[in-house]
Records
---
Amino acid sequence: MRIPTTKYPVEQYQLANGLRVVLAPDRSAPVVAVAVIYDVGIRSEPEGRTGFAHLFEHLMFQGSENLEKLAHFRYVQGSGGTFNGSTHLDYTDYYQFLPSNALERALFLEADRMRRPKITEENLRNQIDVVSEEIRVNVLNRPYGGFPWLRLPPVMFDTFPNAHDGYGSFVDLNAATVADAEDFFTTYYAASNATLALAGDFDVADAQALVEQHFGDVPARPAPVRPSFAEPDLTAERRDSYVDERAPLAAFASAWRVPDPIGDFAAYLPYVVLAEVLTDGDSSRLVERLVLKDRAVTGIGGYVGFMGEPFEVRDPTAMLLSAHLPPGGSVDAVLGTVDEELDRLATGGLVPGELDGIKARIVAQLLRDLDPVLGRALRMGTIAQQRGDAALTNDLPRLIGEVSEESIVAAAASLRPSRRATVEVVPGGAS
Amino acid sequence: MTLREVPALAAARKLKLPKTAERTLANGLTVIAARRPAVPLVEVRLRVPFARTNVARGMVLAETMLSGTSELSNVELSTELQRIGGGLTAAVDPDRLLLGGNALSSGLGRLLDLLGLVLSDATYPSGEVAAERDRLADQVRVAKTQPAYLARAALNHRMYGRHPYARQTAEPEQLAAVRPAALRSLHAERVHPAGAILVIVGDVPPAKALDAAEAALSTWNGGGKSVELPAVPGIEPGPVTLADRPGSVQSSLRIGLGAVGRTHPDHSALQLANLIYGGYFSSRLVENIREAKGYTYSPRSSIEHSAAGSSVVVSADVATEVTAPALVETWYELGRLVSTPVGVDELEQARQYGVGTLQLSLATQSGLAGLMSSLSGSGLRLDWLTGHAERMAAASVEAVTEVAERYFAPANAATVVLGDASVIEPSLTRLFPVTRAENGHGE
């Protein structure tokens, strides 16, 4: 099969204040996406302030140099657009998706809060309450809340940046102060630590002029030096478990460290493909064996990166397998079968045609991610920030196509029990 | 610090609909295709009328329809789909069976062939059915621990009484009892092209997409019968229904109101009234109970259209200790909407949002396919959006206020609260008449 690709044109440059700019024009529909990505995430929040990166993201919507509280939402939606932001391990993004006649307004709104968010005690307390309800609805009040993305890192990692709960504890959230927020903004929200990405219906020269007009006078501050978050690989298996009072059935997730996604992309990509070989669809190795044949799990998923975003994460990260068990199921037995299937792959290799189908599915998903201009702006902006060149976005299908069978077999052989961290959900019997 | 002005909007571009083509095949299947060439992919959505089927059998049928044909096992079908970078899924709701799929655009013909194979020749193999119905039963057991599921089930029961919409999910034991023979006869009886609508969107010329559909699906059996549901009953006003969930750290508030479908003259104004109430972030409900009071993370209201009726559903998950005040505010905002005129500025803002987001909804393949399929369920096509945009643009303060009075009256609402009754019942009963949910509708 011929691997299709994308050829989105992309312009990249930096403003004098250090803001990186990515412009990806596409006049096919009268819509535009504006994204600002700050190079700071959960891993950078200070000890004693778990959840702060996410809380700060909320504060960025609470007013800015020229705008009162609620104004941001009203201006975006009153332009026929939508907005949001999200906090990740290594970055935080803010974005609007709007009819293209609102482009300049969106640029104004982003520049205004890049100059200075308006952070008051009242708004801070209000958003601590809102974030607390977000944690209750997404984690505490449902079965399997935060599984495995909040539950597995503390088993696998030893240092605070990698191991801590990114949603945060109520104690830490309630201890947050306006001064903390101002410090965080000053340190991490410098223009030189951010990437502005536009995708959609605009003329490049017009957009360049508007970007300069609105962002050119955002004051320059030095970008913080990004520390290394490296940790050594595991040398002995780690296991942990916890009781989930709301969960009716057992579940587990395992992870193995993978090569540095940025520093060694060629060694990293085979794991992205391997995760799909193992778990994508009824014909994948582990679904066929564990779900369809043995019926030892009710479902299994595999992916790279704790938040499931293989092209938007830095080192250290991992490949994960996550499975739910039927009544009476055994985690040990399933892990034994996983080892057996990994051995079979490592020693027997792939069957003819297996890899082509998997690659076609991965490439189709990559293309689907880029169909919305918002997905395009976010991926291009993040790739520019982490890898220095947004155009790599167009190369991803080709690079997936070039992943060799040998490298996948070698990746499978590296997933030994001694390098594995596993967390198990013990059902609390509620139902 | 100089005060800067927020830039005005540039001139809006007119709503531009994609190129579409439509054909009804001899067997009764309607095919609608639209072109969006942004990426070399294609999306398909097929809706097959499926009203008044046994809930448990319908759920297991959707779960096992892709488990094999007389030519292909489930693993072989999955392999064939992977070759074209594709996938197929099946789901049911009380109105229809929905098959969705996608593939690289070069694989459209093959995707439709495989879809046709499943429609004409799904075999429901005994081993696979036994495994899948157990998995489904486990999934329902997990769902029954989720507040979102429980609260919605309790609301459906409260709103719909004896109508089939009242129970949309089967019990685990009912699922476990479904036999392959029952699935084969349900398929033979109800999976037919008469009244079914296939939507194809992607990097394929519409005429070619129609030809591909005709080539693959014209042999799909045209028999079957047409079954319609009675219209949903009006909501009977009554006390707040309290469903107990011991130990819950939040309370799930759900309010249902009767509404009208997309073809009703009130519809466009209703959509604006809903936006003003709680239909987007810059609404009264969100600004009140989230941004001012911090009671909740994601309060909202939305209009839902089903074949037998439409409704407005308000939802908010709030901290247990503020359950009563959050419900007071939610009701207060309903009351304010029906007793005082909407503001000129807030209507203008809602109008901009309603019209502007139509552009956004057309700008992706999957969004466009979903929208076309959903409109087709109301007997409508994309061109309906043009009139809808014009009606929203023209709706006056008086018209929106009048429609709000008609549909948002708290006196006509069904209200359900799911939470830890031992904590919240005393404060709720001081405010409203409260009744406990019947057993089995909120566990």
---
Amino acid sequence: MMLEKILACIKELNPFGYVLLEEEEASEELFFLGNKIELQRAKQVKRHTLTLYKDFKYNGESFLGDAKVSIPDNSSTSEIRSILSRAEVMASYVQNKPYPLAKPENLVLETSFEPSPFLEQDLAFWVNQIAEELLSADLTQRVSLSAAEIILSRGSRRIITSEGIDCRFPRANCYLETITSAKGTGEEVELFKKRDFSSYKSGELKEALENQGVLTLHRAEALKTPRNFTGDVLIPSEHLKTLFQYYYSQGAAQSVYEGISGFSMGGAFQEGDGDKITLNLLPYLPASPCNQPYDPQGVLLKPVTLLERGIVKSFWGDPQYSHYLGIPVTGALENLEVGEGSSTQEELRGEPYLEAVVFSDFIISPQTGDFGGEIRLAYIKDGNGRIPVTGGSISGNLVDCQNSILFSKERVREENFYGPALSRFKGLTVAGVS
Amino acid sequence: MKGNSTFLRENHKALKELIGLLTERYPWASVLGTDCSGLNYEVTGSSFKVSESMWSERGFVARIYYRNSYFEYSFSSFKPGGVRGIVEKIAHFVDSVSSVSLAKEVLTFDPPAEEKIFLQEGFPLEEDPLETDPGKIFTIMKELKDKILAGSKLIVSAKVRYEGVRIAKVYISPEKDLSQAYVWSQCYLFVYLRDGQRTRRAFRGYSGARGPSLLMDLESKIEPLIQEGLSLLETEKIRPGEYEVILSPEISGLIAHEAFGHGVETDMIVRGRSKAGEYMGKRVGSPLVSMRDGAASCRDVSSYFFDDEGTLAGDTLVLDKGILVSGLSDKLSASLLGIKPTGNGKRESFERRAYARMTNTFFCPGESTFQEMLKTVSHGYLIDKMISGMEDPKNWGIQCETLFAWEIRDGRLTGKLASPVMLTGYIPEVLGNITMVSRDLELSGCGSCGKGYKEYVKVSSGGPYIKTKMRLG
């Protein structure tokens, strides 16, 4: 057994500390070209990742170095020894101030924690269920499915550390990619949608694909985004999720310690009349692909309130940077929950707006807050009703506009994000094309 | 450095046996074996880090041709059960899915046809990233980081990142027995500045088909990096609209990659996802524009001897003086289109499927100089430093985000800067509006290229300075 071989080699080396991850993963994958299967794949792999810690002194100063290496499956004992020895040498040059490693804690599973259904039955069963749902979607006459990918994987992660942590938990994820095309009055157009999830409700995927078909048709019939639009911009949850990467990054202990973040504990980061932001980090969100009880360093994950009504309440961090800042270790939580806003979606849509529904790619710089994307489909509402438009781009800076954002009361789930279904932004730049 | 992977050499016999046993059951089979290992070094204002590269992988992927279809099985070990055990697992998978999929429609492929080739190749390995003294690498990186931090009081942090990767692969089928090995490296310099509530970040990236010697030439790059960082504290908003632009070699490479590279990947064409299929042999750009792609078209981070499907490296002329003349193919899409694969079948790792992907993609040099181009611009921008790009090959749209747009007025750079800037456009217009192409040719291979939002592979892209018109926002 690889695990025993690796542990025996670690014992021989007797390092200051270690974190060993063993991951097993199996997948079944279906690739569609139109409605026909193009390729079928399966995977069965095992991975081992070791972080080796070494304490040492240099010029009279104490350091705790570490090196993270992978140990390929089926490595021989001599190969493992060689990899460990190289890791130890590398760690001896990593001059980081000492910090304590994660300690064991008793896991108390949240009562709401529901294991992924993908952990039961054969993978092939679920892949076929998902494929059947996609192929049964009722796309209108002018819309078709160009391509689809279903990659369903499951397995387990075991974490063993020198501090006595030994935990194992299952993991499951489905990656689903659908591309729909539609013919309107002009050229044929397409829309791309990808989603990761660890569970779904029967009929949900079919409905999502049918909705994608409707949006594709709207893109096919869209007018060019006008050059003179200067109103507010509505951004739905799918892209709001991207914008919250900025707050997640600003709240990271490392960003704060290195002075890249402007956040300070207890500090207010919003002024003005907009909705005040609340952001919680959670170990578990229904259907999220990021659910896990422990992070990869063996830190037991518990809910953390990062921001509360525009005030920085805490930071999140690993053992190293949490120790440097003198704050509790939270570990790396990957599920984000954003508090509700003050208006209904209907109220947010009450005034003229441009609602950006699909971008080519919507991106944000987690350090600066600059964000933007090219518009594949948006709707403009003015005195003439709600009209689909396409082309051009939207850009802005979150620091500049965070004081006036309005969020909807209604909240929805998007992969590892649960937050307002809709948000309204002032002062963004819309670069139209006609 | 021929056959430098002991692991792959030791498993060569088992892989031959695997192909022998599989072809007793199925009409055709192949296997790709990978042994790629790399290290990622990072030095910031507060810490040191060394970790395994995201490009490290070791394992196998078998491809089976059966009932006119293809099946694949990825595995990391022959244990337990040895070669026969893997054959049984593959057989179980193929039997189970081929019976289930009978209920669905399946694409059919012609039987694979390969030429008989034996090849053992490797680029000279003067410096192995894994064997280089880590103390030496950290010392150079720390000196670079300290120099950046000392550049201004407004600098709050700095980061230097180096990644070096050693690649070894074998491909075996009834007709082919191929092995190859090579290295590549990349390095980033980052500077973070704060002025009041605002954080700004500037960066420079360097890459090449070489080892840690890449780090040796970077000291002279620090002062320009700091100046760029400081200039980002005083930027102006650009007025959205269409402008005359000069694209730096890095950005012309980004345009080549996003605008045309993705659109001529033939798996996009067979999916009906690219307009390029309708334009083969037709004019799509100015006569000044030619474009190439190929693992054998130059020596950079995506230069190899054979791709992940065992097709030998190509050097493909994609655009010839504005005429679209060729796509970039993997084996499956080439088979469906009835064309020869071009050596562009690449996988993120042995764990993933192969797609048609770019390698080293670039616009070919022209005859102008940068200064000549500058003089012709009355009001426009010099665009430089890629942040990101996204393709839309179906509708020939393009989205690129860049860090710098330096204002040009009356043929001169004014020193005024807009940042960041979103470039959008309709590809035939962008390529058709090209009026000048410089004599330069620079390629850059930092970062990675995805297919949509996944399947990351190493590519390089570049070109000369190009003058055209684009929409900025």
